[in-house]
UniProtKB/TrEMBL annotation, chains A, B:
PANTHER family listed in its UniProt record: AMINOTRANSFERASE
Family to which the UniProt record says this protein belongs: Belongs to the class-I pyridoxal-phosphate-dependent aminotransferase family. LL-diaminopimelate aminotransferase subfamily.
Cofactor field: pyridoxal 5'-phosphate
Protein name stated in the entry: Aminotransferase class I/classII large domain-containing protein
Organism of origin: Aristolochia fimbriata (White veined hardy Dutchman's pipe vine)
Location of the region described as Disordered in the Swiss-Prot/TrEMBL record: 1-21
Amino acid sequence: MSFSQFASPISSSSSAFYGSSNLNTRTERKMSTLGRSSRICKCVATPSEKTAYTTNVTRNANMAKLQAGYLFPEIARRRTAHMQKYPDAKVISLGIGDTTEPIPEVITSAMAMKATALSTLEGYSGYGAEQGEKRLRTAIASTYYHDLGIDESDIFVSDGAKCDISRLQFLFGSNVKIAVQDPSYPVYVDTGVIMGQTGLYQKDVEKYGNIQYMRCTPENGFFPDLSTVSRADVIFFCSPNNPTGSAATREQLTELVQFAKDNGSIIVYDSAYAMFISDDSPRSIFEIPGAKEVAIETSSFSKYAGFTGVRLGWTVVPKELLFSDGFPVAKDFNRIVCTCFNGASNIAQAGALACLSPEGFKAMQDMISFYKENAHIIMDTFTSLGFDVFGGKNAPYAWVHFPGRSSWEVFAEILEKSHLVTTPGSGFGPAGDGFIRVSAFCHRGNVLEASKRLKELYK
Amino acid sequence: MSFSQFASPISSSSSAFYGSSNLNTRTERKMSTLGRSSRICKCVATPSEKTAYTTNVTRNANMAKLQAGYLFPEIARRRTAHMQKYPDAKVISLGIGDTTEPIPEVITSAMAMKATALSTLEGYSGYGAEQGEKRLRTAIASTYYHDLGIDESDIFVSDGAKCDISRLQFLFGSNVKIAVQDPSYPVYVDTGVIMGQTGLYQKDVEKYGNIQYMRCTPENGFFPDLSTVSRADVIFFCSPNNPTGSAATREQLTELVQFAKDNGSIIVYDSAYAMFISDDSPRSIFEIPGAKEVAIETSSFSKYAGFTGVRLGWTVVPKELLFSDGFPVAKDFNRIVCTCFNGASNIAQAGALACLSPEGFKAMQDMISFYKENAHIIMDTFTSLGFDVFGGKNAPYAWVHFPGRSSWEVFAEILEKSHLVTTPGSGFGPAGDGFIRVSAFCHRGNVLEASKRLKELYK
């Protein structure tokens, strides 16, 4: 039935898409609906039809614990609704932290060359090592961990830090207790919930049971008061932090490593923004003596080279890191990577290798400088309007305080009145309420326009 | 410390790799070892040094249940050992099912163009939809599921079927009971073990507790006797099967769907080899009426377009598929995909779209025909030597019977005497013992040479 289509696979309804790559989403949807209904067959249930049959498979109770949608798709939905309400508005996104600037040619040309080479006998390669190409692992080790006692065998190349976090949760299993900075990147908590590490969501405190939320606010300089934190097995720690933009100092990270050591905890250190650091804060947890015995580090080219769509990250699991029975964590992580993953795209890996060439590295640094200038403009804007603004210096995020107001209310106000998409701070944890995160990943013209609109809104 | 290296990131030891992309693995390893030892710092524990510190984090007991390494890395290790023993032997791999032929230019040129476009303002894109680009989802739906009532919103584009299987396990959680064909692709079982769905490994029967192994042998035509199979929540079913190469008929799949319906089970149907089918066996489970209420389908371009290294697959979760409480499975899978994944590489997606253009599709079919001719040569070889050989017709795998012998023993014999890497059937499940899987993913010259050596060995 369907395979009779194989010889001429593109039906008239779908071929329309090939000639219309510039259609906007709404037009595409309209066309797709038309195309679909014209080829629909009788056995398809239409939305109004009730399907009587249910399987006997019980829904995973952990999935049911999750609250609403994952933050960023939720924001995308609200943005889309806003655009439908104001079809002529020029909506500017300072929201989901998505890179906007083209990837430097030294990097894309390496990827194009790799793609082209895949059509040659000499250049073709199939399955690569699940852990990544040895040359790339070596280049990551020598670029980011030179002199830190991390070598290529400690590096696991991946399709991004987010994906590695879920693989790390698969590794840890359901019987660990996790701690997270509050606020922080929602993936740590959400994957923990899915894995079954947590209790139910407690609406009154806006927290899941059995997670240690380590409060990070202006009062404590966005570093948790560890004397109030009880032991967790796994401490997720992001520095420079997403969303607050704060980078932990060497003293603070030394304290964190000591805290982990005292408790026998494992730190999962997310350094995806490390290259944005301007001061002498550590770029890697492994700059702290003894960290290799208590820490994993995950990072990514997403924000360094505009690889949010290309997908390439890595995770460092030092061979010195051991479970309580002495079993090396890296051995289990290797098994996870080999069983649940098949390596990052070889083309993306070629791009990453080019990122670490002298020219590529310089190009990444220039791009980071560009985004930091954006951050500077955003910081200046809010400061000039009398707001307390944090972050921005060591990170592409400004963390703006609206004391006494709900984050979603501020988010809605800025979207409604200025057509600007930000991110509500409470989406990162209860301590984020009263804040919004403003992303510096934006074209310069849009940052300047956003600044103008904000000055109009909050004058 | 490490970041002082950022301005000039490539140390002399790693820069050697940039100028030596054609070095073979053994040479690379030697250079890397030299390079590493020259920059090693004092804080690194050498293998002989004991690290006293262990964390207090308990190793995930499910990880400890796993037996030895994942099959294919284990084979790679044995192959490497063999090459060290016989450095001058010309080892030919008919082993891990890795594609060998260059990707057609119509496909790689689309990827090169996408990569190049990422350096332009108009062509740059950051985060894509986690579910994949709408145009690609639409093209997959219309190419493979035309008239089957599957539309673009049912398709989740991914970085490969293996990765999707682990995400499906994350979705199902630890409280489901799974059934697998015995033998079958080891990832179903191994991810189930990691997820905590199973009991311990039982050495005597070579099975994990709490998994239904559905025996598939020549006696039952490689389709399980469902009257002997007790209920499972999730039935993993691969057709054409890896490793046996058998494709289930329409009658058999109708029986399977009815079995799932009677039990309220969910079928996870792996159709990664569907395009290899020569006869009128169904290419998709959704060709069977009612399957949308009981089945998920996962597939991939890996074996169709040589994308084993490029990484691009998809999973179909029909909106008609419901958990026992009526909750749509697709909604939970969407949440998993959004939380644990960030979309397939945009470059790989551009390649997949080209695969589904008329020229790309024709090129894929030609490549598949080439591999099927290889399979024919392999089948003929073993048949002429008097072996019982299965598969081959609808799949790129021949499944060769060595009655009364252990698979690993046969594997070792063929490797030792003929320098050919195959895959031991017992690696796919206990019912695979006594068989080896011979892959048709091979250059033609190598297949002919392998045929010659096998005729010498078993004459």
